[in-house]
Design a protein that fits this description.
Layout (H helix, E strand, L loop, with lengths): L1 H17 L5 H17 L6 H24 L4 H22 L6 H23 L2
Helix pairs in contact: 2-3, 2-5, 3-4, 4-5
């Protein structure tokens, strides 16, 4: 009986320790964010759709940034979330200005945002 309890406790302890830094909610948000950024890059020529899409993407980036800042994350994770929010905010601000950016700028900026998000999620997946 003692041996079974010790084996069970050891299994629980090992499982808990292996996932100390991995956060599946945060990981999911980055994956979803990457997919949405890639999809948005295909509608840059449709002004109404891209404005609405970028506003939503900025909201998601804000969620990721706030989530990272309120949990016990590493400083690198917090900085990465902040960078992603800044990139997304820059694009949002360009669309909120009087002159909307070109289609090429939109596509390239969304590609950069998606690549950044993908790199962060890839790193988080290895923690």
């Amino acid at each position: 009986m003692y041996k079974k309890i010790m084996t069970l406790c050891a299994g629980i302890l090992m499982t808990g320790c292996s996932n100390v830094h991995f956060d599946n909610v945060e990981y999911d948000k980055y994956i979803t964010f990457t997919i949405r950024a890639k999809a948005l890059s295909t509608v840059c020529k449709d002004d109404a759709s891209i404005r609405m899409g970028i506003a939503f993407l900025k909201s998601e980036a804000n969620y990721i940034n706030e989530y990272a800042s309120h949990r016990a994350a590493r400083d690198e994770v917090k900085a990465s979330a902040s960078t992603l929010y800044s990139l997304t905010s820059e694009l949002f601000d360009r669309y909120e200005s009087e002159e909307a950016p070109s289609q090429v700028y939109c596509e390239q900026k969304l590609k950069t945002i998606a690549t950044t998000s993908e790199a962060i999620s890839s790193t988080l997946g290895r923690l």
